[in-house]
Amino acid sequence: VLVSVPDFTRGYGQSVNLPSNADAGLPITLSTGQNVTKVEFDLVYDSALLTITDFSTSIPGAVSTFSSPSTGVVHVSVSSAAEFSATVGAIELGRFAATVPDTAPYASKQILHITSLNVEDSVPQTRPSRTDDGVHIAAFVGDSSGNQAYSSGDTTLLQRIIVGSGTGPVAYQLADPMLLMDINRGGTITSGEMEQFTDFALR
User: Fold this and answer.
1) 152-163 vs 192-202: helix crossing angle, rounded to 10
2) CB within 8 Å of 163: residues ≥ 6 apart
3) Per-residue pLDDT for 198 more than 80?
4) pLDDT of 46-59, one tens digit each?
5) Distance (Å, rounded) from C-alpha 88 to C-alpha 35?
6) Residues linked to residue 9 through DSSP beta bridges, in sequence order
7) In the chain, how many H helices and how many E strands?
8) How far apart are CA 14 and CA 198, in angstroms?
């Protein structure tokens, strides 16, 4: 069972609502909920770049617990008398309530690390499992220049990526350009991002 936290870009003062602001919270997903009745894990993160205050599950009949044993660590447990899902396929385990602090250093990066993972079936017996950690860039989506505002410079950098003459924004060394420039979350950087960027710039 693969337990995943997504990669994302959100800057200071922003709530972490993924995949878009129409969705509340930071999701945790499972590759399958079939024959799974319990999942527990710790999430380790940089508290200077992220604030996590709660977790709630969306699985019918399941009960979740949330605690923060130390700064930058939260513990989550989700359990149910029945399997989480009767069918094969990925499901959402639940969502963290998370925000980026106003004091988060701009363009900083962190890994959201899932550790102490335990997945059980109804026996109960531990199931083989693995984690898919997330990457967070503390910046505003589409701000390719890194100047904390939307400008023509962002448009130029985006166009260079689209036509293949650029390799990525220099303000975010070693960061995947997809995290910053895939504004419509289509899985690629295309001309469709230009329209989305215009919407951002006009807000």
Assistant:
1) 170
2) none
3) no
4) 999 999 999 999 99
5) 9
6) 137
7) 3, 11
8) 19
